[in-house]
Amino acid sequence: MHLNTIFDAINAVSPVSLIIALSTIFITIAYLALKGRGVPPGPVGLPYFGYWPFINNNYFHLKLDEMKKRYGDILSFTCTGRLYISLGSIKVAREAFITKAECFGDRMLSYSAMGHILKNEETTLGKYRIPKGAVLLLNFYSSHHDNELYEEPEKFNPSRFIQTEGKRKKDSPIIFGLGKRSCVGEGYVLMQVFLIISTLIQNFQLSLPEGSKKLSIEEFATSSLLVCATPRAKN
User: Which spans are transmembrane here (predicted)?
Assistant: First the structure.
């Protein structure tokens, strides 16, 4: 009986209306297929909402790192109708912000772990097409956990940033940005950080509170770190 009802409803639709409906569906599918042609690979989300329901803001950098291992250094996903392009390595970041600075050289719109840039015209990056209106994300976490660039990236080893002759490696790390849009206060900040940290270490013995567990790199990015500062004995 249900089938008869369905067939009756279909028969009640005029041929012209049916042709218009099928044409609209076909044109929509063709438009979406052509629109996504040439863009970087990435996960398929829900209609309109895209990948947004699966995003956890506190650990989104880890999700992007997981997606990078599957799709590569350049990947894409959609959220509420907007296309996002994620850069997951220093190599592609250099290509975007140095080699193609005229296309991607605008200042970032945020200073979080994933600064982003909105593109106003279509361009290319590597072998992929970057459509107009796409949002470019630079995942600093993935960029600085690249096994090809850093040996044992999960291990705390500050000496990895120093070359054998004692000079800091150029553009590594990239916490102050790259190219002509890099932070103009980098030299001042590095000097202040050196003075503050060296003064603290000179005057205090730093340790974790008794009974507290050591935080992993993933937890440190989204948690508070308590440190006990014990004054050093004066000679």
Answer: 12-34
